Amino acid sequence: MDLFNLDGKVAIVTGALGLIGKEHCRALHSFGAIVIVTDLDKEGVELFASELGEDAYGYQMDITNRESIQKVCDDVIARFGRIDVLVNNAAINDMVENPKSNLEESKFENYPLQTWEKSLKVNLTGTFLCCQVFGKKMAEQGNGSIINIASTYGIVAPNQDLYTDESGQQIFYKPPAYPVTKAGVIMLTKYLASYWGSKGVRVNCISPGGVENSQSEHFIKKYSERTPTKRMARKDDYKGALIYLASDASSYTNGANIVVDGGWTIW
Question: pTM here?
Answer without folding.
Answer: 0.96
